[in-house]
Amino acid sequence: MRGITDYIERDMIKWLRSPVSVISMLVMPAAWLIFVGLALPVSFTGNYLDFITPSILVMTMLSSSLNGGTLLMFDKILGFLNKFLALPTPRESILFGKILFITIRGAIQATIILVIAVLIGATILSPAQYGMIYLILLLFGFLMSACATTISLYLGDHDSYAAFNTMISMPLFFTSSALMPYNVMPAWLRTIAHLNPLSYAIDAVRAAGTGTVPLLQIGLLVVMGGVVIAICMQMFRRVTV
Fold it and tell me: Most-buried pick from 23, 146, 171, 239 (CB within 10 A)?
């Protein structure tokens, strides 16, 4: 456990020393929240800001996770990874340190977005509802961070990963239940949205906001996260530098 916390602390210090990086990752979700949440005319809900805030929180976790996939890749490119692998701490400490840091970073960014949402008019929820929302966001962040780390290990170079990030992030968002409910979607989009893991997280956050415990979506996120982390661990054990 000490090894994991050391790797988290190292990445956290590096992240906080780059204020441009901290701010830049908040610009897009904040812009979506303000300009879409307040300006887009819709007829299916009385308060679109409340409807889209869960989507923006999940999108923030997704963006943080996909961007975090490069951390392990850069450590390998810059020669840090071979030094870490020579240490007596288990290899898995490096992997879990990366995944947990990416998840924690995403939760911090989501908190800032949530504060902005409340300030511009989103409904204030109870502490229990916020606790359930954070549980869902952390599970989703862990899942997507593990996915991003696994893909970065497989691709192996920054250009390929950047292309993958660009290719996958917006299609995932737009084919989910982020911007509209299922009943107003075209039939073909509704089918895709029901299979999209972002929809599981967004629907779960929305349900938590109404006081419901979304056991099905939470269970799906846990199972998917377990499968992905098992694959990631197998790949990381075979890493050579």
Answer: 146
